[in-house]
DNA sequence: CGGATTTATATGCATATGCATCTATTAACC
DNA sequence: GGTTAATAGATGCATATGCATATAAATCCG
């Protein structure tokens, strides 16, 4: 808990001081950016990111308001929606990555070697 | 991030379904419970728990409202305060621990052996 | 078929968080 | 000794979160 708290604060601080949006935005944009046609259903994003349904719904509101994604209707199922990343959204993700990658390196990469990172990832994956 | 997110949700869920307060309360009550005379200055709690100053201030409000802690003045420095745990607070902490301990065992203890847990703790401590 | 259930997403309301700033007090400096 | 800076803690305001529930469409089942 402490490690993630201090890592997350450090990374959020780095993003903020580079005038980038919060980290949660990255996860959604990243999933969309690498999805076929840059589009996913909300429930697919939910599965991939672990965001709670009601939080994701409102995060999509914010992304949409900034023009980073668009909602489109999903014809095969009237309940469903598409969330589609825009060009502006792809650019925003790339801009965030510039900062995020350096932040990961500074706060994690510099403190663990590859073998240690692999061990850590394996142990954590058993808890997730 | 994912491991802590899913652990924290699971533990919060366990606490809630046992009608216990959120986990954040535990950390503060625990620090107070084991401090000499059951009292600490807010900034000391802050250092020990990693809570942000403004969040701690309001968490203390909530604990005080429930009668689990009391604020007292600190004579050596007019800016300072004592936060003192009450008997009700000690009992509340003990009650939370009943649930929390089982939850830790179920979600972590059951998935890692002692050596793995020690490795994990060591690696995480390097990131905190 | 038609009512009951389930699934996908959104939202109202209460609470928690973050940021910036405020007040009060003490320490630092020249 | 008086101004300036630093420290301890609290708070107003905007935003985010959690919970419960709403809405709407699809599926199930007798």
Output the helix-strand order of chain A: HHEHHEEHH
Assign the CATH topology of chain A: Arc Repressor Mutant, subunit A
Residue share in β-strands of chain A: 5-15%
Sheet with the most strands of chain A?
3 strands, antiparallel
What's the N-to-C terminus distance of chain A? 13 Å
Report the uncertain regions of chain A: none
Major sheet strand order of chain A: 1-3-2
Oligomeric state of shown chains = homodimer
Biggest chain pair contact, residues each? A-B, 22 and 22 residues
Radius of gyration of chain A: 16 Å
What features would you highlight for this structure?
homodimer, 128 residues, mainly alpha, Arc Repressor Mutant, subunit A, three-stranded antiparallel sheet, 6 helices, 66% helix, DNA-binding
How would you portray this structure in words?
The structure is a homodimer of 128-residue chains. With 128 residues, chain A is mainly alpha-helical. The first copy, chain A, has a single domain (2-125), classed as Orthogonal Bundle (Arc Repressor Mutant, subunit A). Chain A contains six helices and three strands; from the N terminus they run ααβααββαα. In chain A, strands 1-3-2 form a three-stranded antiparallel β-sheet. Chain A is globular and about 50 Å long. The mean pLDDT of chain A is 93. The interface between A and B is medium-sized, with 22 and 22 residues. Chain A binds a DNA duplex (30 and 30 nucleotides) through residues 22, 24, 41-43, 52-59, 61-62, 74, 77-81.
């Amino acid at each position: 808990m402490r490690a993630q708290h201090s890592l997350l604060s450090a990374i959020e601080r780095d993003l903020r001081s580079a005038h980038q949006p919060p980290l949660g935005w990255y996860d959604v944009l990243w999933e969309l950016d690498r999805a076929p046609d840059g589009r996913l259903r909300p429930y697919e994003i939910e599965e991939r990111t672990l965001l709670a349904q009601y939080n994701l719904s409102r995060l999509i509101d914010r992304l949409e308001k900034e023009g980073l994604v668009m909602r489109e209707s999903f014809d095969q199922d009237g309940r469903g929606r598409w969330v589609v990343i825009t060009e502006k959204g792809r650019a925003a993700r790339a801009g965030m990555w510039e900062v995020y990658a350096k932040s990961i390196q500074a706060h994690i990469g510099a403190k663990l070697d590859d073998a240690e990172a692999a061990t850590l990832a394996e142990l954590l994956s058993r808890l997730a």
